[in-house]
Amino acid sequence: MEELKVFTGNAHPSLARGICDYLKMPLGSAEVFEFSNENIFVRILENVRRRDVFVVQPVCSPVNKSLVELLIMLDALKRASAERITAVVPYYGYGRTDKKDQPRVPITARLVADMLTVAGADRVLTMDLHAPQIQGFFTIPVDELTAVSLLVQYFREKGADDMVVVATDIGISKRARDFAARLNLPLAIVEKRRLGNAGISQTLNIIGEVKGKKALIVDDEIDTAGSLCSVVEAVIEEGAGKVYACCTHPIFSGPAIQRIAASPVEEVVVTDTVPLRGKKNLDKIVVLSVAPLLGEAIHRIHTGLSVGAMFE
Q: Which of 225, 229, 232 is nearest to 251 (CA)?
């Protein structure tokens, strides 16, 4: 693997180090910092000419700074004559703005795809996009991994008897159905509606039977945890016993942690696609690492093996 290099910005260096530990190689050396005028500076500190380069950088808080760091790193590597540059974006920020659902609004997920391509990315490696059609926004190859197998394995080992998988809304029902099928469990779906653009939702109905069962709530990300807590309350009102939850991306913005701590949910299982640094009161949070998954995908992309075969 002499031609392989892995670099990272400041968004999630611990994940990049975990990936390099899996690959048994050092993390690439680079300076990435912000001047006093808030301009971001990048300098690659080793030779990347004709190398296969991967840049690990989720577009997470602070979202805009993380995104610009990634774009500038891609540009620096492109100008340093890297042979191929893969943007490893475990969490694709702006992915929720994937269509025009109101008059005169942008499709920011497409804009970010264009920016990554223009900046120099030849390929994108990501995890559990908010909407699968985002792959079609790119004119370069996109490998989308999923944390479903990781989460399923956790609950299989924990014991999933007498559980029902609950999709937080109709949009996530396909992923939840896959989750339920792997655990051989029934599926219930929460019907809800969004109220404006403030991230507030109203639970209307639960399609399926949860009474007398343990509920496992499945979502792709948890932001303010408002939707999660309303679903937890709804399934308990319908007669569910213990309630668990899981997601790939623990954004946990605003009052999310406090809401989860005060909620009757037993456990929230997440992955480390975004960092939880600085977060407190994480007693109910279980974090599973995606570093081996991303590391294996990087190894397969670099050596020309099938990425899809990882999930067969």
A: 225
| Strand (E) or helix (H) holding 218 | strand 214-218
Task: Using a cut of 0.90, tell me whether the model's pTM lies above it.
Answer: yes
CATH 3.40.50.720 fits domain 148-288: no
**For residue 123, which of 84, 81, 69, 94 has the smallest C-alpha distance?**
84
Structure confidence at residue 308 as a pLDDT band (50, 70, 90): very high
Q: What is the pLDDT of residues 154-186, one digit of tens each?
A: 999 998 888 999 998 888 889 999 999 999 999
How buried is residue 311: exposed, middle or buried, by Cβ count under 10 Å (0-12/13-18/19+)? Answer: exposed
Question: 109: how many CB neighbours lie within 10 A of its CB?
Answer: 21
**HEC secondary structure over 64-110:** HHHHHHHHHHHHHHHHCCECEEEEEECCCCCCCCCCCCCCCCCCHHH
Angle at 226 between CA 224 and CA 242, to 5 degrees: 115
Q: What is the mean predicted confidence (pLDDT) over 267-280?
A: 93
Task: Look at domain 4-146+291-311 and name its CATH class.
Answer: alpha beta
DSSP-based three-state secondary structure for 245: strand
Taking each continuous run of H as one helix and of E as one strand, the counts in the chain are 8, 16
| Domain ranges (residues) in the chain | 4-146+291-311, 148-288
Cα–Cα distances in angstroms (integers) from residue 35 to residues 31, 41, 58, 217, 279, in the given order = 12, 7, 22, 43, 26
Cross-sheet strand order for the sheet of 4-8: 4-8, 52-56, 84-89, 123-127, 142-145
Amino acid symbol at 235: V
**Candidates 192, 213, 214, 280; catalytic one:** 192
The yes-or-no answer on residue 192 being catalytic is: yes
Identify the DSSP state of 49.
B
pLDDT bracket for residue 233 (50, 70, 90): very high
